[in-house]
Every structure is written in C-alpha cells, then in structure tokens.
Amino acid sequence: MSSYVFPKDFLWGGALAANQAEGAYLEDGKGLSLVDLLPTGEKRRGIMKGNVPSLTQLESEFYPSHEAIDFYHRYREDIALFAEMGFKALRVSIAWARIFPTGEDAVPNEAGLQFYDDLFDELHKHGIQPVVTLAHFDVPVALIEKYGSWRSRKLVGLFETYAKTVFTRYQDKVKYWMTFNEINMLLHLPFLGAGLVFQEGENVKQIQYQAAHHQLVASALAVKACHEIIPDAKIGCMLAAGSFYPYTCNPEDVYQGMEKDRESYFFIDVQSRGEYPGYAKRFFKDHGLNIEMESGDAAILKNHTVDYIGFSYYSSRTTSTDPEVVKNMTSGNVFGSVANPYLDKSEWGWTIDPKGFRITANQLHDRYQKPLFVVENGFGANDVVSPEGEVNDDYRIDYLKRHIAEMGEALQDGVEIIGYTSWGPIDIVSASSGEMKKRYGYIYVDRDNEGNGSLKRIKKKSFHWYKNVIHSDGENLGELS
Known about the structure:
single chain, alpha/beta, TIM Barrel, eight-stranded parallel barrel, two-stranded parallel ribbon, 16 helices, globular
C-alpha cells in the first residue's frame, strides 16, 4: 500500500462554483450573470472567446446554468454527503449578481446575502470550512452592457464595494478567500474570464491587458479590505496552472515554453510580488500596448499582495516551434498543446500527467515562497449508471490517487500546501463545454446535456474511496497503477 504523510490540519475537500451548481439563476432577486448567456453546443466556445451575438437570452438555445444541479435548493442534502466523506473544506463562489443584481445597486440584495449565510452555517454545522471565491467566471450582465465589463476602470470600485460587503457580512464565518478564479483565463476565454465582448477591428490584446490591470488592482484592493475587515483571514489569488514542456531540447522550444508559462505567471507575479515583471513591460512595448494606470496603482499592488497561491491543476502542456509538430495539437483543453507522446489523454483530450502536478507545485513554491492551496484537480469522464444503480468510476480513482500521491511527494520536497479541494465533488455543469455528461463528481447527478433527469444524487465508487483517503489523512490511497 502506498502511504503519504499529510499535515494533521490539512484541508481535504471539494470545490464547485455558483454558476455551475446553484441554478435558480433569477431567483430571490438575482441579476443575470455572464455564464447565464453561455449555451451548450458548438456556439459556446466562440462566445467564451468574446464573440457574443447577444447580451440577452435566445429562445433557440439551452442555457445549462439556469437550473444547473439545483444546489441552491438542495445544498443541505449535498453538504450532508460531503460531510459523510469527511470534508474539512468546501470551496464555493459567491454569485456577484446575487448580492448586487446590476453590479451597482445602492443596497445589496438581502435575499442573496441570506442564502450564503445559510450555506456557510450549514457547512459549519458539519465542521466544514468554507473557502470562498469572490469572482468565479462571474460578472453581472448589466455591467457588461453599461461599461463593457472589465475594460472599464469603473468596475474596480464596484468590485471593491462588493468585496467589502461580503467581507463585512461573513467575517465570522469565512476565513479563507480568493479574489478571481483562474485569472489568467482572461487571455484565453475573455468573455468567460472577464465579460469582455469584442467588436470587429478592435485591438484585442490592448483590451485584454487593460482589463487585466483593472482586475489586478481590484484584487489588491480586495486583499486590503479583507486584511482590514477580517484580520485573522487569509486571502489568495487563483491560477489555472500546468507547466508548458518544450517538445525538444531545442533552445527555441525551451524558450517558447518559458514564454508560455509567463503568460500565466504574469498575473500571479503581480498579485504575489506586487509589481509588473520586466518581461511583461517588454511584452507591452513590443506589442505597442499602452496600459492606462492611475498614479496610486503601483502602491496599491505593492502593498496588498496575497497570502497564498490557489491553483487548479488538471494537466501539463507541451509546446513546439516546429510547424510539423504543431500540426498535432490536442483538442479539448483551453490551453493549446501539442500531443505529448509520453502521456495518455482523457476522452475530452486532456493530458493525464500526475508527475506534472508535483512539478507545477514545486515551481509555484520556488517562485513565490508562499503557501499553496490546491483548489481544483479532477477527472472529467462520461460516467454510466449500471442496471444495479452503481457507478464504478475506477478511472477517476486511478487519476486522483496518482495525483494525490504526487502531492504527497511535493510536501516531502518542502512545498507548503494548505489543502486539496478536488474539482466538482458532485457532478456539475462543465464550464468549458456546458455538458453534464463530462462528470467530475464522487456523487452522480441524474441530469443530461439537455436538462432532463430527476436530479437524484447517487454515490459513486470514488465516494467511498475518497472517504477512506480523508479518514486516513492521505495514508490510504490504495495501490498505485
């Protein structure tokens, strides 16, 4: 049996997002959020990239976030199942438009505030620590319509007001916070990451990096507010992580791999170190980008850096400068990657690389010298319920045990890790595809891609496996393949 020693206060648990789980998309005064305009099907990816046909819902489309898995009404039942597994933490997000339906309301929506009060109380009742993301692919649509979302400086102040409101309300209930989920997604799926909509002929890079600056300043102001309002809290950033391997030892490939990594590290460099790195300044200069900054921005960024680095890890990526190699790109993952001949892929084309998890954790710790928090890691698969009503997801168990083992190795390497909240502990709507059949959970939800199903919850084989992992504090993973 494989055995790893994890800290006794290690936060084992799971992670989900408001827009992929809650449903009740306009209930109790909630405003429309950007994900509520993302349909399933072939149009979804284009819209996520900023090619948005309409900021109103189209009758011809199915929007999976509108009901999702109805966590809004069923969270008590779901939290009881998480508690049965022994969760120490549950990562959730607050829907900004539940608190401020238009993003700039004079007073917050009490019904929205009360929902999260009740949610956090239910978690505490079961001894589960809430880990809360302020913005998880979430901008009120009214702010996109009025200001163009994060391309406008106006959103900095509105986000700060939202952050202060929830810090004040939940200061006794939430001690772990994060600002923006996968902040680097802004460069890859700008509508999903920041509500950005592009018109023909616009300088997309200029808009993206201006929006990034606004988010980075807003993040720093949220850190400042959190430290002032909840002095005993910890607030982190959040990166969609995964190293880029050079396809060969050709220095051109190696350099490109470094540049690809820096695309993502740029955000965390600013949030963790408090200033724009030299390579970013050169990038702006080389591409003719002029980022508008106010006089106090540099001090805000420098004085209000994050306490820890939250990150997701699903797979590594591989890059090449050889045109022939580049023809062999993998599909599925948001981050373009050439196929790595040494690694297998999931049915959605995501590379499976447990060793890359350890590599990424070491790189992040070496770079920032701050605690890490693994807030997403998981395996999307098309699970099937047997005639006996069982889901035997051995492939998920294999993926997770090999990744947790590498996390155990990273701890022995000296990497400080606060906790591990695997992605989608209950099946939820896929952010990338909008599908339900791309399932991550330990708990099956009876719902299909068209929104049909009873929403009944069924424990999978992995439910019992993860319960044993948590109960043993990671010592009992089972045999590694």
